[in-house]
Amino acid sequence: MSRHRNSAAPRITDAAPVFAALGDPTRARLVARLSTDGPLSISRLSEGAGVTRQAITKHLHAMDKAGLVRGSRHGREQIFELEPRRIEKARRYLDQISADWDSAINRLRSFVETDPPA
Amino acid sequence: MPATAINPMTSTDRIEKTVVLRAPRTRVWRAIANSSEFGQWFRVKFDGDFSVGKTISGKIQIPGFDHVPMEMHIESIEPESYFSYRWHPYAIEAGVDYSKEPTTLVEFRLEDAAEGTRLTILESGFDKIPAGRRAEAFRMNDNGWTSQAKAIEKYVSAS
Fold first, then answer.
1. Widest Cα–Cα separation across chain A
2. ipTM, interface predicted TM-score of the complex
3. Is A4 touching B (CB cutoff 8 A)?
């Protein structure tokens, strides 16, 4: 097998690490909040977040960069909303692997359940 | 707008499956820890035995993917109770060197159950897998991984 895909390296770097972006509990909470309440301003998202507004802003910008959320200006306020397509893709990947495990488990089941115990 | 309800924290990092198999623990253990038995239901042919700290290679036995080498690094073998290894999920594109990329950890846990054996499979570490890889895997799936899996399932349950 040849390693002709050296071009893969920059591609991986610039492909946004969606999962890593969600790995942080504050970010996961922001996504959950945006998914239930829809587009929100930074001040609304900072309410009751338990971290500073600056910290929230930093997280949102990182998530924007990762393609998880999209920010837009409305007057003096910056509004963020979910970029569901990106998240959906990441989830579908896990769903697929999950389905593959289900099939493998089905095969394991028929393998051990039909075989007389040794 | 809505829709995408995200379970905070770990939902993106792991897949967990628990099933009860109607077979004794000894039997289930052998099907998992014996590389040739593992290969029979997983559809892969290994070149040796599972041994802690060793990397084992095999060839996937699924039509259309039989060019794909598969490697598992065995982390832990605790007879009849726990087996774990690391691998590259969906490392199925020809010509790509996955060796420098992060792996996921796959764990098999066995417990006695009234009806037989409770098996829990946990695969974790997906948060570290580059997004580009995930997109690629998804494309691969579109190209027939799912239908292959379905075909095999049908074949196995018919035989």
1. 74
2. 0.74
3. yes
